[in-house]
Hints:
Elements: E1 3-5, E2 20-21, H1 26-38, E3 42-44, E4 50-54, E5 63-64, E6 67-69, E7 76-81, E8 90-95, E9 103-112, H2 113-117, E10 128-137, H3 147-154, H4 167-179, E11 180-182
Parallel strand pairs: 1-10
Antiparallel strand pairs: 2-5, 3-4, 4-9, 6-11, 7-8, 9-10
Amino acid sequence: MTISVNDFVRRQVKGSGRTYSSTMSFEEIALHADAQMAKGQFREGYRDGVRVVQADRAKTAHFVCPFVRITEETELEAGVVKRRDNEEAYVQIRAVTGDPVPAGTVDLICYRYDVLRENNEHSTEADWELISIHAVPEGIGELPMGPVTMMRNQLQLPGGTKAYYDSDSWARSVEFWQKFAPLKEN
């Protein structure tokens, strides 16, 4: 089994409002994902060919969790953004105040080659590619996919990977994203 780095994950750097590591390279993270997957430390994702690999707890401290818990005092900022040029713009919410919550765990999201190939989104010829890193806030069992990503997938819009979600998945997503927001870093 081989896990390589997809170009999409490379946007997860300091200042992006996404989980990142300042101590591990993307290649080191992919190697860790490969070792964890070989040990069976993963769960199946939202469709066949997507796996959520659990990083070793000893690695959690290497990642920055970008989320703040939203309170009445939290200042939020909305902007219209695109992830990629070929995708539709969407409304992105960021917290401009608040303290990031500590990460309880880190999920390494890996897609199999054939799934990435469906939309010509593979970056290598490897069996699997690391496409996203998610620091899960302490006390949260599983980080739900964002509703915009779910919409893009279910409606098969550019940048989406074909999927269908049940109403509970939608509700869990909306519930989480009403309580947490990524902190906008300066």
